[in-house]
Design goal:
Elements lengths: L10 H11 L3 E6 L4 E4 L1 H7 L3 H4 L10 H17 L10 E6 L5 E12 L5 E10 L1 H15 L12
Antiparallel strand pairs: 1-2, 1-5, 3-4, 4-5
Length: 156
C-alpha cells in the first residue's frame, strides 16, 4: 500500500520536490552552524549556489551586527536542546544576499534530532519579504510626513 493510503501518490517524490524545488528557501545548519542543506529557492533568494553555501557558516547570510546575538542563542539551543522559537513562530530579520545585498526575510525554524533524540542542527524555511518590507516603510514615511495642503472640509 502506498504511504499514508494515497493511491498513486508518491510521497517520497513529493517531499523531495517540495524540499528541493519549493517556493521557499530551506536551509539546514549543523550543530556547529555550518550550512549542510541549501535548496533552489535559497539560491534564488540569497544569490549563492549550493556549492558556494554548503560548508559555509551561517555568517554568509547574516549581517555582522547581528552575529554575536545569533551565535549566543544558537549555542544555547545546541547546548540545551531548547529554543525560544518553535511551533511555527515566524521570525523577521535582516539578512544578506551575495555581494552584501540587504534583504528582509521571515522564517520559521525546526530543531532536527537524530533517531536517538540528539539535537543535530537547525533547519529553517525562509521567505524573502524585502519588497513588502520596503513598501511598508514607504507607507509609514508617507503617513508620518507633514501634510503640505490642508485637509478638505465639508464646506470646501
Amino acid at each position: 500500500m502506498p504511504p499514508h493510503g494515497h493511491i498513486g501518490f508518491d510521497t517520497d517524490r513529493f517531499c523531495w520536490k517540495l524540499t528541493h524545488e519549493g517556493p521557499d528557501a530551506i536551509v539546514y545548519a549543523d550543530f556547529g552552524g555550518l550550512i549542510r542543506f541549501w535548496n533552489d529557492s535559497a539560491e534564488r533568494i540569497f544569490g549563492y549556489s549550493a556549492k558556494e553555501a554548503i560548508g559555509s557558516s551561517l555568517d554568509l547570510i547574516m549581517p555582522e551586527h547581528l552575529r554575536a546575538r545569533h551565535w549566543a542563542a544558537y549555542g544555547e539551543t545546541m547546548r540545551t536542546g531548547k529554543t525560544r522559537y518553535g511551533d511555527g513562530d515566524v521570525l523577521a530579520v535582516p539578512a544578506l544576499g551575495k555581494g552584501g545585498k540587504p534583504l528582509s526575510i521571515e522564517f520559521t525554524i525546526f530543531p532536527y534530532r537524530d533517531a536517538d533524540g540528539s539535537l543535530r542542527g537547525v533547519g529553517a524555511i525562509l521567505r524573502d519579504v524585502t519588497k513588502r518590507f520596503e513598501e511598508l516603510k514607504a507607507l509609514r514615511r508617507a503617513a508620518a510626513a507633514p501634510q503640505t495642503t490642508p485637509p478638505k472640509t465639508r464646506s470646501d
